[in-house]
Amino acid sequence: MFRIIGLVLGLCLAMTGATQKCGERNVDGVGFQVYDTDGNSEYGEFPWMTVILSKEKLAGSEFNLYQCGGSLIHPSVVLTAASCVQNRAAAKTLVRLGEWDTQTKREIYPHQDRQVSEIVTHSGFDKTTQANNVALLILKDPTELMETVGTICLPLADQNLGTARCFASGFGKDVPGADGKYQALLKKIEVPIVPSEKCQKTLRSTPLGQEFVIHPSLICAGGEEGRNMCKGDTGSPLVCPISGTINQYYQAGIVMDGAGCGENRIPVLYANVPMFREWIEGQLTQRNMSHSYFKHT
């Protein structure tokens, strides 16, 4: 499927929270590089990516069941979609960080599992319209920041997203329907931000109908055949490059339920992260948590 080359002799030591900046994408991977990736990310390329698991019991055995994705914005806080965690018990919810290949434990650094102590969903979340589809997971114990585990930057509330080309990552299906398969390796796709007016016009040609209006808490991205997020990617981040930096990114969107997998060149709706900057800061302030981990200016 792919071949791994260029194994680095002498791996770098884990980075500390004091020296690590938010949103640093490891373009060439950590420790080794993957060629012929076919849509797969490099190991450690998106260190903010998190996996949200549900702790279940079956026939006397305990196991962790994949639910959705998320992003680390503070050592003790994960940003995700409300539609993924609404009505879910914190005691049965686990977050995994530093995951890349779900089929092996032979990665350079082990993944980190953290118990969720509190789930905070936006009070304005509307399951029907997907408006305000955002939630925070407060972790019982902080994560250890290192090369493969880091925070994503957040945009300012008035951030102009423009028409940047951005990256989304996740473990969801590769194609829609019964033929789709959940990904063993963390996938990545590059998609453009689509202006709301253009997106709304396109979406009105779908079963959404001529009266469809994009809620201010939503943005559009994609519209390129076969290039978008899919079933199972809910909660995963859409990140865009920070102007004037090298390989530093901020989170522009959150994958929502019903992602269309890029069929028929139809853009996909994401939660509008800039709109929730103040809400996120307010929630952290209430819990005496620093805002510094997601600030890039």
SSE blueprint and pairings:
Layout (H helix, E strand, L loop, with lengths): L2 E3 L27 E3 L13 E10 L2 E14 L2 E4 L1 H4 L7 E5 L14 E10 L13 E5 L25 E6 L16 E8 L1 H8 L14 E5 L14 E5 L7 E7 L11 E6 L4 H10 L11
Antiparallel strand pairs: 1-2, 3-4, 3-6, 4-5, 5-8, 6-7, 7-8, 9-10, 9-12, 10-11, 11-14, 12-13, 13-14
Pfam families: Trypsin
GO molecular function: serine-type endopeptidase activity
Keywords: Disulfide bond, Glycoprotein, Immunity, Innate immunity, Secreted, Signal
Characterization of the model:
The chain is mainly β. The chain has 2 domains: 49-152 and 278-286, Beta Barrel (Thrombin, subunit H); 165-273, Trypsin-like serine proteases (Thrombin, subunit H, Beta Barrel). It is built from 3 helices and 14 strands. It has helices at residues 82-85, 196-203, 277-286; strands spanning 3-5, 33-35, 49-58, 61-74, 77-80, 93-97, 112-121, 135-139, 165-170, 187-194, 218-222, 237-241, 249-255, 267-272. Strands 3-4-5-8-7-6 form a 6-stranded antiparallel β-barrel. The protein has a 6-stranded antiparallel β-barrel with strand order 9-10-11-14-13-12. Strands 1-2 form a two-stranded antiparallel ribbon. The radius of gyration is 18 Å and the shape is globular.
